[in-house]
Design brief:
The complex is a heterodimer of chains A (about 475) and B (about 110). Chain A has about 475 residues and is α+β, with helices and mostly antiparallel strands. Chain A is about 50% helix and about 15% strand. Chain A contains 12 helices and 13 strands. Chain B has 4 helices and no strands. Classes of the chains: A alpha+beta (about 475), B mainly alpha (about 110). At the A-B interface, helix 1, helix 2, helix 8, helix 9 and helix 12 of A face helix 1, helix 2 and helix 3 of B.
Chain lengths: ~475, ~110
C-alpha cells in the first residue's frame, strides 16, 4: 500500500503526514526533557552540598557544542541542496552530519571514562579530597591468615575458589581440609579444592536429608567448611567503588568477608587509600583550621590560607559595598583549592575567572601531565568514597541521566540519517521531493537534539 | 513548503550566518561563565538568556518555525504549557518551606 501524503499536503491539516508526525513526537520530547530539566532545578535548589560548578571538562563540552552546531548547519544544508537538485552535495552534507554525530559520541565516551577514574573521598569531618587512586586501585591487605571458612550452600552450588584466591599474594598456598588432605593451590589444586568442597557440601546435605526425611534439594543451608592454611597466607584485595566488581562484603581488623560467603581470618595490615590529590574542598568543615586535609597535606595549609586571603582581598576590592549574602557566597568559593603540582613550591599557581578558562584549555590540549601530591588516607578518617558516578551525589546523578538520554538521541540520529544515506539511497534520484521531506523530518529531530544540548552545556558545565 | 531553488539559495545564506552566530554565542557563553557578575544567580540568568536566544535561533531558522502551518504551533503550545506548569510546580514545591529547619516546631505551636 502506498503511504499517502508523503509529498503533498493533506487537505485538512495543510501538512504532509511525516511533518505532523515528527512535530507530535518532538512535542512529547519537549515534555520528556522538560521533566528532566525540572528535576535538575529541584535537585539543585535542594542540594545539601555546594553544587559543583566548572567541574566537568569545559573544553571538551565546548568542542562538542561546536560539533553539534556544525552538524545542525550541515543537515539543513543537505536538505537545501536536495531541494536545489544537487544530489552529490546533499549526500556529502548528510555524511558530514553523521560524522559530527559520531565525533560527539567519541568525545562523550572519553568524558565519561574520565569520570569513572576520578574519585571523591568525603572525610568524617566533611573535608572532601578529590583525585585519582594510585594504580587505579584501593588495596585492603591482610596477612597471618590461618583459617578460611568457605560456604557451599544452596545459594552457591558452583563453589569457585578462584573468586577468593585470586586475591591471595602468597605463591602456591597450601591448605588443609577438615578431612586432613593437604592441597596446593595451583591449577590442579583449585579443581581438587572445588571437588572437595562440593563433595563435603553434598555429604552434609545428604546427612541432613536422611535425618529429617526431606529430599536433599530442600535441605537447610549448610554449615561452613573450614580450611586451614599450612603456612600463614597474605591477601591483597582491590576494593572497588562499583558494587558489581566489589569482591568484598566488608572487613574488620581480624576478618575479611567475601561476597561468595567466604570468611578469612587473619590480621589487617594495611587499608590506607593511596591517592593523588588534585582538589581540596573544606566548604562543609566547621573547623577549617583543624581540617583533616592538613593532616595529609601539611605543606599545603599555608598555600591554602594564602589562596583564601587572596580571594577575600579580591572580594573586598571588587565589591566594596558590604553585602553579607554576596560575601558569604564569595568567601565560600575560597574554601576550594585545586592542586597542580606535588608541592606548593613546585609551580603552584592560582588562576581566577577567565585565566581559569585558559588554564583548562591548556590542561586539556597542552599535553602537559600534571603531577599531584600523593597521600595515604587512613580508612578510619573516611566517611564515604566513590568515583564520579550517579551514586556520588545528585549532580552526577542528573548529569549522567541527562547526558545519557541525550547521547541515546544522538545515536538515534546516526541511525535515522545513516539509513537515508546508506540503505534507502534510490530515492535521491527517483523521488527527490519525498527524499527532501525525509531529510527535513530527520533534520527536525537532529535540530531538536542540538537544541537540548544548547541548554545542557551551560547548565551542567558552566553555571 | 513549496519554494523555488532561488528561494532556497537565499535561505542557505541565512543558515550559514545563523550557524556562525551560534558558534560565536557559544564562545560568549563559555567566556561569560568565567566572569564574575557579582552573584552566581546573575551568571545563571545571563547564561540562560544566551542559551534561550541560541535555541530560539535554531527553532526559528533551522526548524523553520518562523513560517510554519498553524497546526504545528497549536501542538507546540500544548507541550509548552505542560512544561511550564511542571517547572512552576517544582519550583513552588521547593519554596513551600516544608524543608526549612524548625518547621515541625512551628507546627507544634498551633496545637
Amino acid at each position: 500500500m502506498e503511504i499517502p501524503y508523503t509529498v503533498t499536503a493533506r487537505p485538512d491539516t495543510g501538512l504532509w503526514n511525516a511533518k505532523i508526525g515528527i512535530w507530535l513526537f518532538l512535542a512529547s520530547e519537549v515534555m520528556l526533557f522538560g521533566g528532566l530539566f525540572s528535576s535538575y532545578i529541584f535537585l539543585r535548589l535542594g542540594a545539601d552540598y555546594p553544587w559543583p560548578v566548572h567541574v566537568l571538562n569545559v573544553p571538551m563540552g565546548f568542542i562538542n557544542t561546536l560539533v553539534l552546531i556544525a552538524s545542525s548547519v550541515t543537515v539543513v544544508m543537505s536538505w537545501a541542496s536536495l531541494k536545489m537538485g544537487k544530489w552529490g552535495a546533499c549526500k556529502l552534507y548528510l555524511f558530514i552530519t553523521i560524522l559530527c554525530a559520531c565525533t560527539f559520541l567519541v568525545i562523550k565516551f572519553f568524558e565519561y571514562k574520565d569520570k569513572f577514574h576520578h574519585y571523591g573521598v568525603v572525610m568524617k569531618d566533611g573535608t572532601v579530597l578529590e583525585g585519582h587512586l594510585k594504580d587505579s586501585q584501593y588495596l585492603i591487605k591482610f596477612d597471618s591468615i590461618t583459617s578460611l571458612s568457605v560456604k557451599a550452600d544452596g545459594h552457591y552450588p558452583e563453589f569457585d575458589p578462584t573468586f577468593v584466591f585470586n586475591h591471595c599474594t602468597t605463591p602456591n598456598p597450601q591448605l588443609k581440609t577438615p578431612a586432613g588432605t593437604i592441597i596446593t593451590l595451583d591449577d590442579k589444586g583449585l579443581a581438587l579444592l572445588r571437588a572437595e568442597v562440593r563433595k563435603t557440601a553434598k555429604d552434609k546435605a545428604d546427612a541432613v536429608a536422611k535425618s529429617t526425611g526431606q529430599p536433599a534439594e530442600i535441605a537447610p543451608p549448610l554449615l561452613p567448611l573450614t580450611l586451614t592454611a599450612v603456612t600463614p597466607l597474605s591477601f591483597a584485595v582491590n576494593s572497588t567503588a562499583l558494587p558489581i566488581t566489589q569482591p568484598l562484603f566488608g572487613y574488620t581488623p581480624t576478618t575479611l568477608s567475601f561476597k561468595d560467603n567466604t570468611t578469612v581470618e587473619g590480621k589487617l595490615v594495611d587499608d590506607k587509600m593511596t591517592m593523588h590529590v588534585d582538589n581540596i574542598d573544606v566548604r562543609s568543615v566547621p573547623d577549617i583550621e583543624h581540617s583533616v586535609a592538613w593532616k595529609y597535606l601539611p605543606k599545603w595549609k599555608e598555600a591554602f590560607e594564602e589562596h583564601r586571603k587572596e580571594r577575600t582581598e579580591l572580594f573586598h576590592k571588587e565589591h566594596p559595598t558590604k553585602d553579607p549574602m554576596k560575601e558569604e557566597e564569595f568567601l565560600r568559593r575560597g574554601l576550594v583549592m585545586a592542586l597542580h603540582s606535588p608541592t606548593p613550591e613546585a609551580g603552584h599557581h592560582e588562576s581566577e575567572g577567565v585565566g581559569e578558562l585558559f588554564d583548562s584549555f591548556k590542561a586539556t590540549f597542552g599535553g602537559g601531565v600534571h603531577e599531584y601530591p600523593e597521600v595515604e588516607i587512613d580508612a578510619k578518617d573516611i566517611e564515604r568514597w566513590s568515583n564520579f558516578l550517579p551514586k556520588y551525589n545528585t549532580f552526577f546523578a542528573i548529569y549522567f541521566t541527562l547526558t545519557g538520554l541525550h547521547g541515546l538521541h544522538v545515536l538515534a540520529g546516526i541511525l535515522v540519517l545513516g539509513y537515508m544515506l546508506v540503505i534507502d539511497t534510490r530515492k535521491f534520484r527517483n523521488d527527490p521531493e519525498h527524499m527532501a521531506n525525509r531529510i527535513e523530518t530527520g533534520g527536525l529531530f537532529w535540530h531538536f537534539v542540538d537544541l537540548i544540548w544548547i541548554f545542557l552545556f551551560p547548565l551542567l558545565y558552566l553555571l | 513548503m513549496s519554494e523555488s531553488p532561488a528561494d532556497i539559495q537565499k535561505h542557505v545564506k541565512t543558515y550559514l550566518k545563523i550557524g556562525a552566530g551560534l558558534i560565536f554565542m557559544t564562545v560568549v557563553t563559555v567566556y561569560l561563565s568565567f566572569v564574575d557578575f557579582g552573584s552566581h544567580s546573575n551568571n545563571m540568568l545571563i547564561g540562560m538568556a544566551v542559551a534561550t536566544f541560541k535555541s530560539a535561533m535554531v527553532a526559528l531558522v533551522f526548524m523553520h518555525l518562523n513560517h510554519e502551518r498553524p497546526l504545528i504551533y497549536k501542538i507546540l503550545v500544548f507541550a509548552t504549557v505542560f512544561v511550564t506548569v511542571m517547572f512552576v510546580l517544582f519550583t513552588f514545591v521547593h519554596d513551600d518551606g516544608l524543608h526549612m529547619p524548625g518547621f515541625e516546631a512551628q507546627q507544634g505551636a498551633h496545637f
